[in-house]
Each structure stands twice: as structure tokens, then as C-alpha cells.
Amino acid sequence: MSHDLSLAQKHAWRLARTLMTPVVLFQSDDAYGVLPADEVDDAEVDILFEYDPYTGGHAVH
User: Fold this and answer.
1) From the CB of residue 52, how many other CB atoms can be counted at a distance below 10 Å?
2) Residue 34 burial by Cβ neighbours in a 10 Å radius (0-12, 13-18, 19+)
3) What are the tens digits of pLDDT across the range 28-61?
4) How far apart, in whole angstroms, are the C-alpha atoms of residue 44 and residue 52?
């Protein structure tokens, strides 16, 4: 997990392109994390961005 949003966004995009699957960037407390989109339960974390390797990234909110 990272405390720098800009760094977390770069890693999220790189991970989406590497795995060739959508990933989400989420915030939990004061840190940011990245998980494959199909592994995230919306009730546990606050999703900020979704990165799709085919269409790019977009804000969820």
C-alpha cells in the first residue's frame, strides 16, 4: 500500500497493462492499494479509480 496517490495511480495502470485485466485503485484509511477488479468487495474499501488495459483509466466517483 502507498501513501502517495500519484505513485499508486502509476502502479495501478502498470499492473492493469501487465495482467491485461481491469484493476481498481482503492483507499483504505490513509493508504492506497490496487487489486484486480473482480476481487474487490465494495463494502470494505473506497474505490477511487478503475483501470482497464483496453480503454484506460477513469474515476469512479
Assistant:
1) 16
2) buried
3) 888 999 999 998 876 578 899 999 999 999 998 7
4) 21
pTM of the shown model: 0.85
Please give the grid coordinates belonging to residue 43: 463494502
Length of the chain: 61
The letter for the amino acid at 38 is D
Q: Where are the alpha helices (DSSP H) in the chain?
A: 5-19
CA atoms lying within 13 Å on the CB side of residue 17: 8
Measured between alpha carbons, how far is residue 39 from residues 4, 6, 15, 24, 55 in Å?
Answer: 22, 23, 14, 9, 20
Place of cell 483501470: 51
